[in-house]
Protein: Uracil phosphoribosyltransferase
Organism: Serinicoccus chungangensis
Amino acid sequence: MRVLVADHPLIAHKLTYLRDRRTDTPTFRRLADELVTLLAYEATREVRVSPFEIETPVAATTGIHLATPKPLVVPILRAGLGMLDGMMRMLPTAEVGFLGMVRNEETLEAHTYANRLPDDLDRRQCYVLDPMLATGGTLIAAIRFLVERGADDITAITLLSAPEGIEKVQAGLADVEPPITLVTGAIDERLNEQGYIVPGLGDAGDRLYGVV
Ligand SMILES: O=P(O)(O)OC[C@H]1O[C@H](OP(=O)(O)OP(=O)(O)O)[C@H](O)[C@@H]1O
Ligand SMILES: O=c1cc[nH]c(=O)[nH]1
Ligand SMILES: [Mg+2]
């Protein structure tokens, strides 16, 4: 897996306010939305395009547009939904599929409770959205799901990642053939005993949806 940390002062600035426990839910949501648009710029560098003929008021020219089949954006419910609008602003014609996954707070195992994805993802480029990569269990399960259905190029976008989780994803997907890229806003210090990212931002789902 290729790991890209989007190293930019605007991203670090917005992440600082996102982390701050004093940041209220509406501001948290807005910052998550803004951050994903910045991360999407890096994450879509290799989005597939095809030539497209147009005429400007001055001359005929060849431009590009998104190739078909269109990319698939997959937010992982619940917290990944907070990144969907920002991503769709960047890729307005992409298709959206949903995966509902939740971590068991004791065992930290990821459990899939909802799947609304196309059955056939043959040759599809997929963008997985989840703000947090902690132990990595959720991302491994989500990526395996997509690969089993034929996805041939997968980019995960996270706002924060833990070093232990990145290592686990590398090891857990070592046998997976399609190229996998992780674009993240920052790699934090570590996980704590409860599997939370340190310093992190707390529970992303709770902070996005006002459960405190
Ligand atoms: O890397 P992992 O250890 O698997 O943890 C990361 C997952 O935990 C959070 O979701 P959570 O299970 O809290 O569900 P939620 O989005 O509904 O809050 C987060 O949004 C990731 O999906
Ligand atoms: O720090 C963490 C780890 C998992 N899920 C979260 O929402 N936050
Ligand atoms: Mg949660």
User: Anything to note?
Assistant: The longest strand covers residues 153-161.
